[in-house]
Write a structure and sequence with these properties.
The chain is mostly helical. The protein is built from 19 helices and no strands.
Length: about 375
């Protein structure tokens, strides 16, 4: 029973997605059509990227980069700026959740005993990871899904997301003024890194993934190359990907497919969304988080309004603690630290995130990009 409770708590979104999928089966009975609901290219590409990122982490690359760069700063604001920028730009390549898993533990060690600085730095890192990840198709799962589902070109994707990404970076840089500027000395942060055979294996896989995302290579070939490489050189890494996230995608694909198959329901939801795609996707993300929101609404939003969905679920990652599942990673990591002030963290996190969300919504309307 305890194991079941632990699983339900750890994988709440997956459980909800599973229940929705099962309930929807009573509306649209199971058939061979179900196989067409699933976007296999998203599942396969996301799996390959997960394997690649976990492989790089295993080689010690991320730890080396973070410690090498952060060891050069002697005051809290400069160090926080370095950590924030690292999260912002690294999230574009290694996803927002992996960026936070890499840098938040380091932040906890560097600012140990300086609670005000620690809380605000982690909040900025979390915002940076969520905002930076929206700049690329591989930065987060919802981007990869929307990119594939609406058949974006790289030019169209970057053209849509670059303006709001630059504005987000500007907001983050101004936000660093919230960090008290104190002299700080930290312990030995130097690290050594010697590229191993596996490092080059994962580098090749990552390049293969990029060519697949750019549609120069079929996703099935990318999957085959990834599986063959890891089975030969590092098969234990296959236990590392977030299979719960992949299962969540499958459940939501089935739910959306079943609901979309009912004309009356599809028309009703489409009418609600009409002209409000960005705001609805942003608002729904606050309740169910932006990944499932993107999958659910994609069944009712046409290609002509894809930009509104893309922007809505990305800036919708700001706001509540569950708006982006990556934010929960930061909260959990901080909560486990000694003398953690969870109430203070939650309050400051919520106030800051909603303030940034409001600014981004205003920016989107001012630029007329959604």
């Amino acid at each position: 029973m305890n194991k079941i409770k632990k699983f339900l708590k750890a994988e709440t979104v997956l459980c909800i997605a599973f229940v929705l999928a099962v309930v929807s089966m009573f509306i649209t009975p199971p058939s061979a059509d179900y196989l067409g609901y699933i976007d296999y290219s998203v599942i396969a590409t996301l799996f390959c990227l997960m394997v690649t990122v976990q492989g790089f982490a295993k080689t010690g690359l991320f730890d080396f980069l973070s410690r090498k760069l952060t060891g050069r700063f002697g005051n809290s604001r400069a160090l926080s700026a370095a950590l924030t920028l690292l999260c912002f730009f690294m999230a574009m390549l290694i996803t927002n959740d992996v960026a936070l898993l890499t840098f938040v533990p380091l932040t906890l060690a560097l600012f140990n005993g300086r609670e005000k600085i620690l809380i605000r730095c982690i909040i900025l890192e979390t915002a940076a990871a969520n905002l930076g990840s929206m700049a690329t198709p591989i930065g987060n799962p919802q981007n990869l899904f929307i990119y594939n589902n609406y058949n974006y070109s790289l030019g169209d994707f970057f053209g849509t997301m670059l303006p709001i990404s630059l504005i987000s970076l500007f907001i983050l840089m101004l936000s660093l003024l919230l960090i008290p500027n104190e002299k700080i000395s930290h312990g030995e942060t130097s690290a050594k890194f010697s590229p191993t055979r596996n490092f080059f294996v994962y580098l090749v896989i990552f390049l293969v993934c990029i060519t697949s995302v750019a549609r120069f290579l079929d996703y099935r070939i990318c999957l085959i190359i990834t599986l063959i490489a890891v089975l030969i050189f590092d098969r234990k890494i296959l236990s590392k990907p977030d299979y719960a996230l992949l299962a969540t995608f499958v459940c939501f694909f089935i739910f959306v497919g079943n609901i979309s198959a009912v004309p009356a329901v599809s028309e009703f939801i489409s009418n609600i969304l009409l002209g409000r795609e960005m705001l609805v996707s942003c608002g729904l993300s606050q309740i169910i988080s932006n990944v499932p929101c993107a999958i659910m609404l994609s069944g009712f939003i046409g290609a002509e309004n894809a930009n509104s969905l893309l922007i809505g679920v990305n800036i919708g990652g700001m706001g509540t603690l569950i708006a982006s599942l990556a934010s929960l990673i930061s909260f959990k990591l901080y909560s486990r630290s000694e003398k953690a002030k969870k109430g203070k963290f939650f309050l400051e996190f919520t106030l800051y995130n909603f303030a940034v969300l409001a600014l981004l919504i205003l920016a989107v309307y001012a630029l007329k990009i959604a």
